[in-house]
């Protein structure tokens, strides 16, 4: 009875609060929801448009007839694109690079961000300032390339992971987030005999999950979308990534479409609906490259706002 009464009281309070909204508040809410709904549609529509064009009749797509809904639905574009030489290997490289690069970057940045919060760290302020300086000044592209070449990173998969082990921006976010935590939590663990690594693993990491999830999004998207390092550091093409192949195929879509058509049998060549065109190859490869990283967001979205806000503002 008590629980039912509380529920009724809460419902009455909500109705009373709703009735108290002024006309100005209602107009503001309506405009607010409308604007953000339109922004959401504007963000999602390019992906929707890209997708419906990849599963529609290729001839209708070429003529520009596909705008709001698919026509002549088929999945042959995806089947043919996945047969393109090297695309499955590039997918494996991109996934491996994204997973390892994200884990290393987030782990390294979190550990360094924790260390620079310790007053007893030797030359703590000096090291922290040197880290921050690298955000504003860099040697440039040519010294960067020469340095990696001298270190033996040309045609080496680990060039995707090791150079990005620590990100200054990530270190700043983690440091600020940790400094906002109650010091008593770590002090109690220290009194029980825990060292720095034990405190970091058992006390700090569970408390900084929101900022770590935020860094995971930043790092994963950055690793997945990067292609310039592949262009400059993989001359033999041994470890091409999916993004670099997208860049390459966008420039060679016409010849690539002809190559795909040459592998199709005569019956499929007679069907214009599934016959590969430069446009169908461009769109399908772009969808294949884009879709996997979109799957990352649902897992980390609930942490994103909290992590970036607390990690960016002291206090």
List keywords for this structure.
single chain, 315 residues, mainly alpha, MetI-like fold
Give a short summary of the structure.
With 315 residues, the chain is mainly alpha-helical.
Structural summary, described in words:
Helix 2 packs across helix 16, helix 5 (87-115) packs across helix 8 (168-179) and helix 8 (168-179) crosses helix 17 (297-312). The protein has helices at residues 2-19, 23-54, 58-63, 76-81, 87-115, 124-133, 141-150, 168-179, 183-191, 196-207, 209-225, 228-233, 242-251, 253-263, 266-269, 278-294, 297-312. It has 17 helices and no strands. It is mainly α. The chain is 71% helix and 0% strand.
Write the layout of secondary structure elements.
Blueprint: H1 2-19, H2 23-54, H3 58-63, H4 76-81, H5 87-115, H6 124-133, H7 141-150, H8 168-179, H9 183-191, H10 196-207, H11 209-225, H12 228-233, H13 242-251, H14 253-263, H15 266-269, H16 278-294, H17 297-312
């Amino acid at each position: 009875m008590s629980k039912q009464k509380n529920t009724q009281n809460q419902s009455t309070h909500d109705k009373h609060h709703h009735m108290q909204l002024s006309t100005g508040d209602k107009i503001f809410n309506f405009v607010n929801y409308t604007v953000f709904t339109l922004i959401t549609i504007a963000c999602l529509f390019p992906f929707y448009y890209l997708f419906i064009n990849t599963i529609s009749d290729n001839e209708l797509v070429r003529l520009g007839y596909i705008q709001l809904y698919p026509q002549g639905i088929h999945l042959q574009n995806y089947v043919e694109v996945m047969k393109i030489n090297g695309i499955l290997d590039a997918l494996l490289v991109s996934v491996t690079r994204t997973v390892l690069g994200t884990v290393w970057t987030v782990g390294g940045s979190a550990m360094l961000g924790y260390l620079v919060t310790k007053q007893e760290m030797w030359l703590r302020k000096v090291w922290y300032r040197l880290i921050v300086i690298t955000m504003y000044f860099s040697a440039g592209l040519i010294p960067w390339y020469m340095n990696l070449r001298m270190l033996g990173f040309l045609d080496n998969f680990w060039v995707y992971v090791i150079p990005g082990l620590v990100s200054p921006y990530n270190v700043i976010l983690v440091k600020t987030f940790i400094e906002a935590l109650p010091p008593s939590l770590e002090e109690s663990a220290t009194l029980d005999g825990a060292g720095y690594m034990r405190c970091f693993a058992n006390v700090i990491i569970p408390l900084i999950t929101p900022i770590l999830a935020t860094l995971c999004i930043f790092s994963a998207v950055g690793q997945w979308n990067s292609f310039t390092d592949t262009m400059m550091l993989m001359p033999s093409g041994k470890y091409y990534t999916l993004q670099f192949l997208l860049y390459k195929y966008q420039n060679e879509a016409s010849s690539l479409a002809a190559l795909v058509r040459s592998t199709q049998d005569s019956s499929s060549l007679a069907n214009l609906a599934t016959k590969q065109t430069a446009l169908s190859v461009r769109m399908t490869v772009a969808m294949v490259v884009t879709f996997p990283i979109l799957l990352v967001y649902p897992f980390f979205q609930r942490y994103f706002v909290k992590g970036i806000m607390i990690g960016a503002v002291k206090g």
